[in-house]
Amino acid sequence: MSNAMPRLRGILSPVLTPFNSKLAPDPGRFLAHCRKLIDAGIGLAIFGTNSEGNSLAVEEKLDLLAYLLDNGIPAERIMPGTGCCALTDSAALTNAAVSKGCGGVLMLPPFYYKDVSVDGLFKNFAEIIERVGNAKLRLYLYHIPPVAAVPISPELIERLLKAYPGTIAGIKDSSGDWDTTEMLLRNFQSSTFDVFCGSEVFLLQTMRGGGSGSITATANTNAPAIMDLYASWQTPEADEKQAKVTATRKIFAKLPMIASMKAVIARELNDPAWAMPRPPLMPCEPNEVDAVMVELKSLGYAY
Amino acid sequence: MSNAMPRLRGILSPVLTPFNSKLAPDPGRFLAHCRKLIDAGIGLAIFGTNSEGNSLAVEEKLDLLAYLLDNGIPAERIMPGTGCCALTDSAALTNAAVSKGCGGVLMLPPFYYKDVSVDGLFKNFAEIIERVGNAKLRLYLYHIPPVAAVPISPELIERLLKAYPGTIAGIKDSSGDWDTTEMLLRNFQSSTFDVFCGSEVFLLQTMRGGGSGSITATANTNAPAIMDLYASWQTPEADEKQAKVTATRKIFAKLPMIASMKAVIARELNDPAWAMPRPPLMPCEPNEVDAVMVELKSLGYAY
């Protein structure tokens, strides 16, 4: 089967998931935030790390995805996180995403057991791909050893690409380490394998290295500047723009990132409910948020 | 509400989960293995680490639990693992376990995010306890930093015990480190808080320190000897028995434990299907199992 769907490239955001006062996902606020990101040109990597994707039950994720699609968000601009500890869960989520026409899925390795073999990880991904059994599947691997503590090794990528060349579509590198991104670009980037850096701090380096873009948390709160940098990476102003984008991220990162981004959105929208993550994550203290707001304003942001 | 149910003490096993050729849980083999353990006096810590509990979807776990109960396994001898990354999943599993009369639940902390605050972990457990809202709940904390990479700190135990004194019922210490077990015994062991060592290697030390027993993988394959050690820990022969039990575990641990125990059961029952774990875990190579069998026989085991 051919796959004529346009490839997801450029800037994607692991979309923050708002919760209501009962700590249930809030579909209305979620949809509004997704629309804002889509309007800014950002692809929707829903259910990622910064989405608290693993703090959601499979059913909660299926419901949120269906709600977006029912309300006109284009499926081809969505790359849901579908990698769970149980391959049955990963297969169910991936199957739903592909059958609804999502542009891809971003898949964590199963992350409970540590020090598992490449054979075992290969078999996990292979089993999911076989169960989904849909040539339209574009599977992006998610390498985030600082959190998952289970890496995606070059050997694993090679084996998966050889076995499923039309399906293994790329990787998000959240190693936090440019040497790794550079290695991935050199060894794997192609017209059918997209390397995304996991933070816009590396966006210019990634684009200069032939990469496809960035899937980055801060696109939730700094979409225009990151999109502008992406659009103008070949211009003389690019380094200056990168420096400002990097400085902005560092402000958010002074607090736990998910809570700080949620807090800033809550301030921006004058909607305190937005500030609440789901446990085990906790909201920021108001005085901490005050300090972040002051720093953002000093950089010229009008939150 | 009073809770007259007998407390789970002594030896429990994180029951191995057999899979069929399609990698689905095999309820018939699971039931037979549970019956064998119950007959040997072992409590059933189903859905633990060595059960590949996190490689199972919530629905798969609910189905297996219901199957055991429908087939006469006594609920009060079951302590299912119910701690997931999503508190909605943890609450659903815990609610099912308590409403069916399980003797307790063994709860991992949410293990995707690392370096989370004690506040956030407290709120996770508190939220689950409140959602379940059943005074019959006995919640055993599961401390296994080598795998979960999210510890249960003494501060967290103190706060939970203060907030939910009738509910927080004990801890399984799988730190692999006697100093930690000893600290837990000294600070927390009581008539309403049971400290279990996570390996029978520490069983004699745990009992001599006033502890309640062990929740240990190798009870799947060495139940009689471990039960005998437990029953006779105050006798002069105890140290000798401990030495043999410890030596036996070390044989299994020469290979990845889950796969090696499954392989030995497959040999013992002449049932090759038993040997298969679910990815990302992989079965042992036959020649590796041969070597384990030789060593077990040299210790006098008739597998």
Provide the spatial order of strands within the biggest beta sheet of chain A: 2-1-7-6-5-4-3
* Low-confidence residue ranges of chain A: none
Portion in beta strands of chain A:
5-15%
How would you state the average pLDDT of chain A, rounded? 97
Of all chain pairs, the largest interface belongs to: A-B, 38 and 38 residues
What share of the residues of chain A lie within helices? 40-55%
Q: In angstroms, what separates the terminal alpha carbons of chain A?
A: 47 Å
Individual helix count of chain A = 12
Oligomer: homodimer
What structural category arises from helix and sheet content of chain A? alpha/beta
Main β-sheet of chain A: number of strands, strand sense, barrel status?
7 strands, parallel
Radius of gyration of chain A: 18 Å
How many β strands of chain A by DSSP?
Answer: 7
Helices and strands of chain A, in N-to-C order? EHEHHEHEHHEHEHEHHHH
- Principal-axis shape of chain A equals globular
Describe what is shown at a glance.
By secondary structure, chain A is α/β, with parallel strands linked by helices. Helix content of chain A is 45%, strand content 9%.
Can you describe this structure?
The structure is a homodimer of 303-residue chains. The first copy, chain A, starts with 9 loop residues before the first strand and ends in a 5-residue tail after the last helix. In chain A, 45% of the residues lie in helices and 9% in strands. The first copy, chain A, contains twelve helices and seven strands. Chain A has a seven-stranded parallel beta sheet with strand order 2-1-7-6-5-4-3.
